[in-house]
Amino acid sequence: MSERALRAVAAAVLGVDDARARVVAARAVRLAGAFPRPVAAGLRAAAVTVNAAAYARTGTGLAALTPDRREAVCAAVTALPGGAQLLDALKTVLLLAASDTAVAAMPRQARADRLPARPDRLPARPDPLPARPDPPLTCITAAEWPARTSADVVVVGSGAGGAVAAREFARAGARVVVVEEGRRFTVDEFRRLPPADRFVSLYRDGGATLALGRPPVLLPQGRGVGGTTLVNSGTCYRTPTRVLRRWRDAYGVPVADPAHFDRLLDEVEALLAVAPQPTDVLGRNGALALAGARRLGWRAAPLRRNAPGCAGSCQCAVGCPRNAKNGVHLNALPQACAAGAVIVTGARVRRLLVTGGRAAGVRFGEHEILAPLVVVAAGAVETPRLLRRSGLGGHPQLGRNLAVHPAVSVAGRFAEPVVSWSGVLQSVGIEELHDDGVLIEATAGPPGLVSFVPPGYGRTLRAQLDGADRLATLGAMVADVPGGRVGARTVRYRLAPTDADRLREAIVAMGRVLLAAGADEVLTGIEARPYARTADELAAAAASAAPADLHLAAFHPGGTARMGADPARAPVDPAGRLRGVHGVLVVDASALPTCPEVNPQLSIMALALAVSRAAA
Amino acid sequence: MRTAFREVMTGDVRLAGEPAARAMRLELRAELPGLLHPWMAATAEVTGHVHVAGSGDDPAAPDWADDPAATGILEIAPLRARRIRYRLSFTTADGRRLHLDGWKSIRLGRPVRTMTRLPATVLDDSGRVVGEARLRFALTRQLLPMAVSVRTRTDPPPTAADLLRPRWRGRPGRLEVWYATITEPRTGTGLWLHHELVAPGDGAAPYAHGWTGVFPAGAAPVLARFGPVPWRAPDGPEVYRAGEVTVSADRLRGSAGDLSWDLRRCGGGAPLYTFPRWAWRHDVLPAAQIVPLPAATFTGTLRYGQTVVELARAPGNIARIDGHGNAARWAWLHADLGGGDVCEVVAAVAARPWLSRLPALPMVRLRVGGVDLPGGDPLLGAARLRADLDLPHWTVTGRLGGARLRIDVIQPADRTLAVEYVNPDGSPVVCHNTERAHARIVVERRTGGQWRTWRSWTLDGTAHAEVGRRE
Ligand SMILES: Cc1cc2nc3c(=O)[nH]c(=O)nc-3n(C[C@H](O)[C@H](O)[C@H](O)COP(=O)(O)OP(=O)(O)OC[C@H]3O[C@@H](n4cnc5c(N)ncnc54)[C@H](O)[C@@H]3O)c2cc1C
Ligand code: SF4
User: Fold this and answer.
1) Which residues of B fall within a CB distance of 8 Å from A152?
2) Strand-pair partners of B386
3) Which of A66, A577, B280, B381 could form a disulfide with B374 if both were Cys (CB 3.0 to 4.6 A apart)?
4) Residues of B with CB under 8 A from a CB of A
């Protein structure tokens, strides 16, 4: 993307002066380097469209226009068919780029200089407390790894599922090699590097993975030693009993029997040191969620989390700077390494080697590892792709049945500062509507890095951002009908009409919590009616939104190689074995039979534990 | 028919902890069963010369390795597995035993490049990486000599006496077995003579022991053990001795409890390789079994309790096992089909636990009219067969070359002995053995678009069978 073309667009969209726009544009170009090609191309197209619109209206480029006229151009673009989406995408990226240049990237002194009177506006409190040291891991980069090796078990992917499997097999005495596409991140980097830089390197596609559809869904996935648990929010929900019964009875998965699965969940909870989040560091965002729910008489409580010693620095999504949050790189993987496992980093597995109907190993780059058992745990999007690339995509349901647990978020504007980025990133769960598949969680984040996108362009947006410290944000996820499909390059997701209804219901419910907590107005995230001050206005705003108008993000993809007893419906059998070949196990989110209706890491890890323990 | 050829590869090896690579040269002589062709999947035995130069800067430095007696195997399956794997053991100048493991990974889009490059890893006995080698077959210089070197020949096979000789060379954690099973046709009595040499995994002194089972018709089987006694390498024609129990190619004799036997062997047929010859010669598999004397007859006397059985040309066999110990689950069948024909089955599930869920690999050798089926490597044939190992009824089904095979074995409980013993690693195993099993073997061929029975055999109480498991 050309930086010059972006500069004027940045100034127009964010309503900042040219000097700031220059810095933001430079950063945005750098970030976009990590994006998948279609997304980068889309952004370029958006920038060109905005410039072209300027020529069409005024006869000159955007750069030469006054702020007023630039905003008028933006308004004109949103009126074009598809224009709103284009501009939205641009805004999201520019906000990410700006999140850095605004404050975090500056030396601390400069931050203080710039915001002398408002120390509460710093996105992250300087963290004087020492971090927990990183435990030892045996990591070897692909460049240093011999071209030809053999092992007893190769595990592809070091995330939630892969880490647990690696530990189980290593403890059973197998020679285990974990092959991970991402690199190793240290707590030192999480303390040193600015959030936006961490963001683009910690996530696949720089965090810009999209599931195509109407509306498109942002689908971020972690990439590194520890997988998505490096960047997840640390929320730990046990799989609900009703979901386990469904897996056992409708999908024929015996290990999902609640009595048995509960013991596995206990074990995973002990591994991750799960406990209710103490309220002292919860932060105002969580406190407001609790207060609002209490006033409505709704079930709500601080979430159970795997972050003992969490200081509420609110950076879970870009790597915990204190090592408080127990990603698997801090427990299961070190335990695997202690039992002899080795992690090869920077190694993207191209394909599984298969000989005569049996797994024979994996290939990455010019490297091959021969092993009679390959455990695939590359995540719900990459696992089906890898299996297809390996000629193992024969099952018609592989890559289908993608459930994403789609999420919407809303914000409430309060008279007093909230400073939502000071506190626990995901702090409070509101379960009032959970029986209906809607789970509300108070979720904040560093500005620019949260999925809530404030409304408007130019000076309107600027004003919103300047008042961002007075916003509290909530998110809600909906247990969805599996409507997605993973292709070789794209992910498609069709939002079921009933799920769109429940997302609207969730917007209203979250708005009511915020109003009950004392918000002056609710930012609905809906383009046509961005503000609501009463429950009626909320309902009207939600009703006005077509499914395609919803801003969706999804953090919990699963089900693309689902487990089940019926060979026709499930690519993976109840013991975790991929059908149609010997010696391939699937132990990540893709093996989940359905959306677990809660944040899934415990469910994934317990399932991985069951599968690998039975095989080891 | 066997094919022999020579291959020379040159390149370098970078040893762990050294900044510069050293020059390396590999001269190999390979010999494999059958002809060399792209669709093959076979394992060749290799011998050769491994040379690794001394330190790079000093031309006068002594060689790091110069071993003219390297040995190993070459797994050749350029199209079927897209891989040609080299596994060689050699000794360095300072006496360390090292192992080179590498393979050419054939990609059809880049055939020349991938067929000529051999990346390999050099490991020590404990599996630690010692170095990484990059070798190349220089097409311009080496193709012609290699092509010219290809020879096919038929060489004298090793004799039964050769194959019966003990193989143990002092390594801990080994189990070697000589066993004979015999059916006395007039009384219907079955006999099982099982001789073991155990070298425990903890390095303790090796010992010899075993047992004898008699399976009389119409009475419960009888078991008696002999040994353990310290292992002593036998001499003369003897290949095994445990106290007064001895085995030689011509004679089996000894006593255990109130059981005694003295039997002379006659005939036997050509050795039957249930496991491929290379697997027997180089211990790359956890264990291997062969039958040096598959269709012999035995004459002599067997006594147990008050009973005396005179054997006159009673059909039986002598087989061998060599390996680390027993599989997690296994089954064995020896069926004498008459007239020198035999069917031998060994189906095993590796003891390594993470593989125990994989289906058993049934190795089947069917000798009919002097021809052994399947034609190729029995290990590769195993992929097309499956075994369901249950008691009293177990089966092996699938493809045997172009034919369809079904084997049913029934081991009636009242005719079966459960023998408990320990592996070299100390783990307990129980094998359920009978020399009076029933078996039915059916081979079908496809003719006129239909599967039709080609040959079938029914053995009524004369099949020898066993199912073992870690219980
Ligand atoms: C922002 C965010 C917040 C979240 N918060 C929570 C939460 O609070 N609570 C919760 O329960 N869940 C949360 N989740 C979800 C949870 O973290 C994931 O569901 C879980 O980590 C998925 O585990 P997995 O084993 O399927 O895959 P992952 O953890 O994603 O691991 C897959 C790994 O495989 C690697 N890989 C992929 N392809 C290849 C290849 N070809 N070769 C080698 N390696 C490869 C990837 O780089 C990655 O490291 C969150 C997710 C996100 C994105
Ligand atoms: S909020 Fe998240 S990033 Fe901050 S200390 Fe707690 S766990 Fe770590």
Assistant:
1) 352, 354-355
2) B397
3) B381
4) 77, 80-81, 83, 101-103, 105, 119-121, 127, 129, 132, 134, 352-355, 357-359, 380, 383
Percent of chain A exceeding pLDDT 90 equals 65
Tens of pLDDT, residues A129-145: 778 999 999 999 999 99
Selection from B333, B329, B370 nearest residue B351 by Cα: B329
Catalytic residue among A367, A405, A551, A556: A556
CA distance A185 to chain B (A): 26
Q: Which of B153, B182, B217 is the last residue of a domain?
A: B153
Enumerate residues lining ligand 2, CB below 6 A.
Answer: A 234, 307, 310-316, 320, 322, 324-325, 424-425
How does pLDDT run across A287-346, given as a tens digit for each residue? 999 999 999 999 999 999 999 999 988 889 999 999 999 999 999 999 999 999 999 999
Beta-bridged to residue B38, according to DSSP, are: none
- Taking CA atoms only, the protein residue closest to ligand 1 atom 6 is A232
Distance CA A88, CA B68 (A): 71
ipTM: 0.75
Q: Would you state the structure tokens that stand for residue A29, as one six-digit string?
A: 């170009």
Among B122, B153, B184, residue at a domain's last position? B153
What integer is the mean pLDDT of B50-70? 84
Same structural domain, B106 and B138: yes
Percent of chain A with pLDDT over 70: 94
The distance in angstroms from the start CA to the end CA of chain A is: 50
Per-residue pLDDT of A509-549, as tens digits, reads 999 999 999 999 999 989 889 999 999 999 999 999 999 88
Q: Which of B81, B102, B380 sits opposite A148 (nearest CB)?
A: B102
Please indicate whether, in this complex, the C-beta atoms of B380 and A175 are within 8 angstroms of each other.
no
Q: Name residue, tokens 């193989």.
A: B167
Give distance in angstroms: CA of A426 to centre of ligand 2. 9
Q: How far apart are CA A241 and CA B295, in angstroms?
A: 63
Give the global pTM: 0.79
Does B118 share its domain with B178? no
Determine how β-strand A552-554 pairs with β-strand A217-218: parallel
Out of B121, B355, B357, closest to residue A149 by CB: B121
Q: Determine which of A138, A140, A144, A148 to mutate to test the interface with B (most B C-beta atoms within 10 Å).
A: A148
Q: Give the pLDDT band of residue B352 (cuts 50, 70, 90).
A: low
Take residue A251 and report the two structure tokens written for it: 């999908």
Residue A71 has which token pair?
A: 């905003």
Min Cα–Cα distance to chain A from B120, Å: 5
Q: What's the rounded Cα separation, in Å, for the pair A527 and A215?
A: 13
Both B219 and B88 in one domain: the answer is: no
Chain B residues lying within 8 Å of A355, measured CB to CB: 77, 80-81, 83
**Residues 355-374 in A contacting B (C-alpha not used; CB under 8 Å):** 355-358, 360, 363, 366, 368, 370, 372-373
Taking each continuous run of H as one helix and of E as one strand, the counts in chain A are 18, 24
B56 and B186 belong to one structural domain: no
The superfamily (CATH) of domain A139-234+237-273+306-400+556-615 is FAD/NAD(P)-binding domain (3.50.50.60)
Q: In this structure, are B247 and B229 located in the same domain?
A: yes
Residue numbers in A near B132 (CB within 8 A): 146-147
The pair of three-digit structure tokens given for residue A206, joined into one six-digit string: 């720089």
Give CA–CA dist A424/A287, Å, rounded: 11
Which atom of ligand 2 approaches the CA of A424 most closely? 1
**Domain extent at residue B249:** 160-470
A556 as an active site residue: the answer is yes
DSSP per residue, A112-148: HHHSTT-GGG-SS----SPPPPPPP--EEEGGGS-SE
pLDDT above 60 for A558: yes
- The backbone torsions φ and ψ at residue A224, rounded to the nearest 5 degrees and listed phi first, read 165, 175
Q: Would you call B229 exposed, middle or buried from its count of C-beta atoms within 10 A (0-12, 13-18, 19+)? A: middle
The reply to whether B53 and B200 lie within a common domain is no
